[in-house]
Amino acid sequence: MRTFIIKANKAHTRADFSLKDLPGTSGRIDLLCRSLNSAFLLSHGFRKNVRVWLNLNGPPDPPKTIRFEGSEIKPKTINPDEISLAKIIIKALKVGEGIKEPAKEYPVLPGVYVSNLRFEDIIRRTIKNSTLYYLHEEGKPIERVNFKGNVTFVLGDHEGLAREDEAFLEGIAEKVSVGKKSYLTSHVIAYVNIFLDNLL
Amino acid sequence: MRTFIIKANKAHTRADFSLKDLPGTSGRIDLLCRSLNSAFLLSHGFRKNVRVWLNLNGPPDPPKTIRFEGSEIKPKTINPDEISLAKIIIKALKVGEGIKEPAKEYPVLPGVYVSNLRFEDIIRRTIKNSTLYYLHEEGKPIERVNFKGNVTFVLGDHEGLAREDEAFLEGIAEKVSVGKKSYLTSHVIAYVNIFLDNLL
Q1: Which of B16, B49, B109, B123 is deepest in the core (most CB within 10 A)?
Q2: ipTM of this complex
């Protein structure tokens, strides 16, 4: 099982943005849509062994967390284009309006859940049965990592993780790098997926 | 210099599609938008050493070819999201309406040109000063290729290249593979870019 956890610092936590201008109105939910595309899609195929956590921390009601569970998602739910993926996020944010219980996940679609889980909650739930890696350009080169069993990759958005998040991950998640440059989140996910496929 | 040539068999050659539903109305111009994103964008950066040829062969007026020249493109022209990239393609298709000369390129924006060049024309222009590779899952593993100088990668869209295109490329472009699975065009471009960065 591969898990990707994406912390989006500015992504809106209510469906108050325009599909016509995701980058300008949503706190970069476009980036999250492309990350879903990279995490799940093959050419005419779908990765059932992938889980994605999107952790949204923008206005007006942070945090909102959307979990995508590859093994449960129905065919044709995850389409490649940004607009259709943004519509799923909108649906999740609508279900997530006004939820109170911090630890409970609410169903949105088969395999899609929304909650008020915080970044730290996601990490704590994940670490129980997965090795954690934090993708960062200053990490250990990915080809020198000995991947075994369930693996989880933590990524930031266009602003990267905040210092307190990095501090929280220290000792929990090894820093791993796909290269010396700073790459877009969706490109890193695509690279990691193909890299791991080739190890098998 | 890195060049990516993408042959899109069904991509519309006039701006007769809807931005609200690119996958359903444009012959998959959404795929071309994500390919531009993968080819050019770094996190807070832009790859000036990249050229992209989009070769559109869908209705109603094929072929239309749009060249993106990284070294000439102005900052903030290539944004990450599909809609803003689709707007550039629309602009190019509008400039391309009714052009007659098959060999002439018309300016759309700084670094963006439109023409009636055919796939074969693009290949012939490129091969003069670049080594050609055809990205295909049955090709030679990319890590065993000895890349030198200018390199060009030919990719298909969601349907892949037609048999006659493959026949045309035989002996001209070595088949290279990033892995045994069939990956989305934009994921392959992201992978190749990061892979080549790491060789330097």
Answers
A1: B123
A2: 0.97
